[in-house]
Amino acid sequence: MSVRHLRTWLAVGSALLLAACGSSSSSSPSSTSTSAGGSAPAQTSTSAGAIGFEGVAIENGTELAPASTTQTGIVDGISCAPIEQLAYHIHAHLSVFDNGSLWSLPGGVGIPGSVVEQTNEGPVAFGGDCYYWLHTHAPDGVIHVESPTARIYTLGDFFDIWHQPLSATQVASVKGKVTAVVNGKPWTKGPRTIPLLPHAVIQLSVGSPTVPFQSVSWAGTQL
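^ that's the sequence the OP posted. Answer follows.
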């Protein structure tokens, strides 16, 4: 379902059909991790926020980077199309902690020109010029993979679409040693190589402390 259709469903209060469309502690003084401009995350608790329209908790921390850095054109062989491509439609979840504090993956990544609006069902990205096959609809950490063919995409592909850096020492605007966990298991390769598989739960800890794995329940989300 397109974001434009989401607005219609929200107007009639259909939370169930909307779902079908489809964390932070205080900083450690000894950590080597820094953020752009030296600003600290707004949230200081690793607890999740309110449940958003996709049935997943909103990430209440400071945005890793604005969604507006998404551009247009082909990136890593991935196009930005006028409509969503639903032949292959899966979802993964990303959470990023800096010095133990949760940061937010913004809604509208991969949907250039979109704007996040507050609704009765939580924040949702509306509008936009086109849809990349990898994108986000809300600041809840959910990455939508909506592709014309089945293919294994990676977290690196998603960050390339976003035009944000991702490496062993940086996640978007946050810099420091990156520790990755996927589905509760340590990821020993570079974070760019993490595959976006169905219901993958990806957690990146930048600096220290390394946050214990925070699981995500997909039950009831219809994602």
